[in-house]
Design brief:
This protein has 447 residues and is α+β, with helices and mostly antiparallel strands. The chain is built from 13 helices and 24 strands. Strands 4-10-11-17-14-13-12 form a 7-stranded mixed sheet, sandwiched between helices. The longest helix has 19 residues. The protein binds glycyl-adenosine-5'-phosphate (GAP). Glycyl-adenosine-5'-phosphate (GAP) binds next to strand 11, strand 14, strand 17 and helix 9.
Length: 447
């Protein structure tokens, strides 16, 4: 069997549009740059991405959740360094008016769009935060920012969460939520967008233990991807060297993924020292120290942050699971055809099983709907598909990553059994309808 991976991002972009994973935002108005909408399958997939991350974090006794507001007191962004330092160097081409990030240009004097040399402007710093106005008066006093990261909502809530949850350091706070960045060069589909979701966890530790925890979280996070079926050869660590380190970071590693556009950051793991809590103490005037009752000592905890993009993890999951295979037609005969498969881990698959009547006869449809009802009661997401040959329906489900297909045929009416076909092996089992939900759950759990 010949097997091919994803050759370019465009192939995936087409699949996403065709099958309803991801659409350009405001498409009927010509679209808005670097914003995307998730369709029915994309929404399920995104919920699953969040679920596996949230479970990996909050099923531990030492991590609790938070859902902070997007709009925060403007001083937060002064304290965090974003108002003064969250900038990219912007250059314009005087000939064709294209804009670039100066640090991404190979030749700073030549425009990559029109090729004209010597017309590039001097770099000027451009702040990536989106501004808006709070209240009726559009004056500077009411300027607020759309948060460029979710992390700050966690730091400012450190005392609230610590005292109410009664957690002792070391412990972490996890949050999933929207973040906004007015990126100069958004590109590559959902890889770099202006509105995206982050999944961030800030782990508060005693100073001096920070580098041990940093190593611990590096391992936890890379293991997470292996657990959900990512190919190990598509993942690597990239260490931030002195020039690359963010203003807050004592040490930083990215987990990079080998996207069709090359190795790129998937997630960041940062030792943020006591930078953030100290800054918020200074700007808010509130004491953010932790009191260690056992040791009878006070300190400002250090923070180890794991920061991933939900949209980027979803994109990586799609790239990683995409494959094309030459297989024999499943409608019988010797015809060889190409099937596209998204070989998702079942925890990620938007649909866990597709239920199909062999024909559109009402008695078969009735059995299908009973199966769907039983699965829904057990919170297993199944789908119904009755159009086209069975082979074509299998292909459709392969392309959206459905692990199992369940076919109800005329024998089902007498023997009370259905045919279950497996996405990856294309093998089939005959299973009693009574056992189907349990069988499906077992297969999903023991992938
Ligand atoms: N709190 C630390 C922080 O925000 P970051 O490296 O700027 O660190 C963390 O962002 C993660 O958020 C990235 O690894 C990426 O997955 C995601 N991310 C950042 N900017 C993004 C963008 N413009 N579009 C999509 N995802 C983005």
């Amino acid at each position: 069997m010949k097997l091919k991976g994803l050759k370019d991002l465009q192939t995936l972009v087409s699949l996403c549009k065709r099958r309803g994973f991801i659409f350009q935002s405001s498409e009927i108005y010509g679209g808005i740059n670097a914003c995307y909408d998730y369709g029915p399958l994309g929404t399920e997939l995104k919920l699953n991405v969040k679920k596996i991350w949230w479970d990996a974090m909050t099923l531990r006794p030492d991590i609790v959740g938070l859902d902070a507001a997007i709009l925060m007191a403007p001083l937060v962004w002064k304290a965090s360094g974003h108002i003064d330092g969250f900038t990219d160097p912007l250059v314009d081409c005087g000939n064709c008016r294209s804009r670039f990030r100066a640090d991404q240009l190979k030749d700073p004097s030549k425009c990559p769009t029109c090729g004209v040399s010597g017309k590039m402007s001097e770099p000027r710093l451009f702040n990536l935060m989106f501004k808006t106005f709070m209240g009726a008066a559009e004056d500077t006093a009411s300027v607020v920012y759309l948060r460029p990261e979710t992390a700050q909502g966690i730091y400012v809530n450190f005392p609230n969460v610590q005292t109410t949850s009664r957690k002792k350091v070391p412990f972490g706070i996890a949050q999933i939520g929207k973040a906004f960045r007015n990126e100069i060069t958004p590109a590559n589909f959902t890889f770099r967008t202006r509105e995206f979701e982050q999944m961030e966890m800030q782990f508060f530790v005693k100073p001096g233990t920070d580098m041990d925890w940093f190593e611990y979280w590096k391992k936890e996070r890379i293991d997470f991807y292996a657990q959900y079926g990512f190919n190990k050869e598509n993942l690597r660590f990239h260490q931030h060297k002195d020039g690359e380190l963010a203003h807050y970071a004592k040490a930083a590693f990215d987990i990079q993924y080998n996207f069709p556009i090359g190795w790129q950051e998937l997630e960041g793991i940062h030792n943020r020292s006591d930078f953030d809590l100290t800054q918020h103490q200074k700007f808010s005037g509130k004491n953010l120290e932790y009191f260690d009752e056992a040791a009878k000592e006070k300190y400002v905890p250090y923070v180890i942050e794991t920061s991933s993009g939900c949209d980027r993890m979803l994109l990586a999951a799609m790239c990683d699971s995409y494959r094309e295979e030459e297989v024999r037609s499943e409608d019988g005969g010797d015809k060889i055809e190409t099937r596209v498969v998204l070989g998702f881990h079942p925890a990620l698959a938007p649909v866990k099983a597709a239920v199909m009547p062999l024909s559109k006869k009402p008695e078969l449809q009735e059995v299908c709907h009973q199966i769907l009802k039983t699965a829904a009661a057990k919170k297993i997401k199944m789908d119904y598909d009755e159009s086209g040959s069975i082979g074509k329906r299998y292909r459709r489900q392969d392309e959206i990553g459905t692990p199992l297909c369940v076919t109800v045929d005329f024998d089902s009416l007498t023997d009370q059994k259905v045919t279950v076909r497996h996405r990856d092996t294309m093998k089939q089992d005959r299973i009693g309808i009574d056992h189907l939900t349990k069988y499906t759950q077992d297969k999903l759990d023991n992938f």
